[in-house]
Amino acid sequence: MDKKGTFSDMRLGVGKDYIFPARRSKMIIAGVIVVAVVLAAYVFDTKVFDIGFTSPGAVSSNHAIFESKCELCHDPFASVTNSVTNNKCAVCHENSLSELGIYSFAGHYLYRSGDPARVEKALAEYGSREKPCAHCHEEHQGRNARISVIGDHECAACHEHDAFVGAHPEFEFVRSSIPDDSTMKFTHVHHTKLVVQRNEKLGRDASLEGACQYCHRPEADGQHFAPIEFDAHCGECHLAGADATKKFAVKDPGDPTKVGVETLAMLIAARKPGTLWALNTNPNEFKMIGPKISKKPIYHEDPWIVENLRMIRRHLYPDQGLSDLLKTSVEDFAGTGELYAEAIRTLQSYSEGLRGRPEPEVQTDLETIDSLIVAVRNAAAAGTLDRAAFATGPMAATVSDEMKSDLFDLADKLAQACLVCHYVEDGMIRRVRADQRVFTRGEFDHRAHLVQTGCLDCHTGIPITTAMTQQEALSQAIDGSFIQNVPGIDNCTQCHAPRKADDSCATCHFMHPNKSGQNEELVRSSGR
Amino acid sequence: MSRPGTFALKKWVRSPAWMVAFIVGAGITLVALVANAWLGSLDPGNAWGITYGSAAAFFMLAAALYGVRRRLLAVRVGASQKWLLFHVYGGALFMLLVFAHTEFRLPSGGLNLWLWWLSLIVTVSGFIGIFLQRWIPRTLNSALETEVVYERIPELVKEISGRAEELAENCPPAVREHYLNQVRPNIQRPQRRLGYFFDITGGVRGRARDVAVLSRVLSRDDREKLDELERLYRTKLEMDAQYSLQTALRTWLFAHVPVSIALVVVVALHVYVVIKY
After folding, report:
1. Taking burial as the number of CB atoms within 10 A of a residue's CB, which of A25, A314, A339, A433 is the most buried?
2. Nearest-CA distance from A523 to chain B in Å?
3. Does the interface predicted TM-score (ipTM) exceed 0.90?
C-alpha cells in the first residue's frame, strides 16, 4: 500500500488516503485574517477613503458635507453618553447677537411672552430637565432623516400635556374668555351681506367664503391673514367722498375761552410742527357757512380732524408726555416699541416741516428732535424704552367744567364720521388692534386647512350662515367685533386625533420659536 | 426519577442549574428592558444601552476565556465542564444582551453591522456545534451498523471498491451491468451527502433498494454473489454516512473559532470608537 508518511517513533506507515486532523492553528490564522480585513477597513476609512466605517449611520443631508469630520461635532474622549455638546452645534446654528440665544432653552422660556422674568423662573423649575441639542436632534439616522422632527415624549419631559386629545388644556383665549380687543365697531353679518351683494353685482365669487376673503386676505405664507387696512378693505364704501363734517365754530385766538376748530388758514399761518400737510390741502374742501366751517370730503385719518382733536386734548391735558405725538390712544395691547415707532414718525414729520426754516430757534428745535430720535433708537436697541413716557397727566385745573363739556362735545362732533366704526374717549380715537394673534404659543396654518374645510366650518362664533337669510340685523351682542370668533380645542380634536390628522406637539408648537430672528444681517456681520 | 405530573428539567438539559441561571439572567435582562422602555427610551448610546453593551462585552470575554483557558491560564480554576457550560450559557446571554443593546434591530454603520453579524454567526455556530456534538454520536451509534475511524475512511473505501470490482468480474451479465451502472460510480471514493443529516438510514436503504428486484431473477449462486456485492455497497454507504456526519463534527469549529477571534477584536475597536466619540 502506498504510504503517506509514518507515525510515531516506530515509524509505522500511514496510508496514503489517511485523513490527518486539521490543525487548530488554521482556525487561529483564519481568525487573524478576518481581523486583518476589519482593521484594514478601519485604517483605510480613517486615513484614506473616509467612508464612515466607524460611523453608526449616515448623517442627515444637511450635515452630509462634513460627515467624515467627526471632530466637528464630537468632542473626542469627552463623554460616553454625549460627546456632542451644545457648543459644537452653536458654531453654526447659534449665530446670533442675542444674549439668550435662538436655540437656547432661555429662548424657549421667553416664547412670545416677552417676559424675562419667565426665564429665571423656568430655569429654576425646569433647569434640571434641560437636554443638549443632540438629545432631541439625533443624528446618524440616515440621509433622509428629518432630525428636526421631534417626538412628543421629548416635550412631555417638561410639559405635562403629553397628548392633544384629552390632555391638552383649552386654548387660553377660550379658557379666559379673552375678547377681541380691536376697539372697533364692526358687524360681520351686515358687512358679509353687503360684500355678497356687491360681488353678485360685479359678477365675482358671491359665496360666503368669497365674502370672508374680501377682507381676510391670506398672506404669502398662507398661514396668516394680512391685517385689515382701511384703504384696502373699507375705503370702497366708507368715507368715499360724500361725507361731510358738521359745521363747527372757528376758534378765536384772542379769546381762549371760546371753543372752536382751527381753520386751514390758521394752521398754515401758525406753521406748527406737523402741519406741513396743510400746505398741500385743497382749501376748497372747507366751506364757511357764516361763522362756522365744515369740511367735505372727510378722509380716513383726516389730518385736519386729527390736528383739531390734538388741539382739544392739549387744551384738556397739558401734560401728555409722548402720547401727544400719537394719533390714537395708548392701549394695553400696543407694544412700547410700536408706540415709540409712531412717535418717531411724528417727530420726523415735524422735522421735515421745519428743515427749510432758517430761524436759529427752529434749527435748535430740529437738533433737539434729531437727538430725541437717536436717543429713542438707542434705547430701543438696548431694550430700555420707557412706556411711562406716554402717560398722560391730570386734566388741566384751569379748564372749567363748562369748557370741558364743550371741548368733549366738539371732539365728538369732529370725530362723528369716525364714530361709525371707532370709539372716541377723552377726545382721542381709541387705537385699533389690526392684527391680533390669538394663538400666543402656537401656530395655525390656514392654507393647509382651507384645502379641506371652509372658513365658516370652524369660525362659528358669529352665526353668519344662518343670519344671511334674516332681514333684521343681529344685535351687537351677537355680531360685535369684540366677539372672539375663533374655535376652541374641541373643533381641532375632531380631526387632529390618534389615527387621524397629525396630533403631535410639533404640529402647532415650536420649541425654538424665534429662529426667524436670525436674519441674514446677523450672519454677515459675524464674518461667516 | 421524577414524580408523575411534574416537569423534570434534567430530562431535557444536562445541567439544570446552569439553565436556571441562564433563565434568571435572561429574565433580569428582559425586566431591565421593560423598565428602560417605560422610564426612558431604547437607545444604544444612553446609560441603559451602554449597560447592555458592557454586560454583553463582559460575557463575551468571559466566554472567550474557555478557548484560551488551557493555553494561557497557569492555574486551573474550576472543572472544564463548568467552563464549557459558562461558555455556552454565557454566550447565549451575550447574544440577548447584544439584541437589547441594538434595540432588537439591525444597526446602521459599517463597524456596527460587522459587529452584529459576527456576534450572530458566533452564537448561531455555537448552538449548531452543541447540537451536532449531541446528535451526531447518538445517531451514528443507533442508526448505523458500521463503526469506523474517520481518518481511515478513504483507505477502507478503497479496499471495498477493490473487492467489489473483483466480485463483479465473476458475476452474471445482469449483475455486472447493475454494478457498472448503479454501484460502481458510487463506490470508488467517499462521498458526503447532505441527505444523511435528515435521514441517515433511509439514505442508505434507498440506494440499496434496486438490488432486491434483481435478486428475484437470479440463480442461487448468482444470488449469493449479488448479496455479497450488496453488502459491500451497503457498508460503503454507511461509511459515507459516517464520513458526512463526522466531517461536520470536526469542522464546525472552523466556523466558530475564527469568527469569535474577529469578534473580540472588533468589540475592542467598537469600544474604542464609542469612548472616543
Report:
1. A339
2. 29
3. no
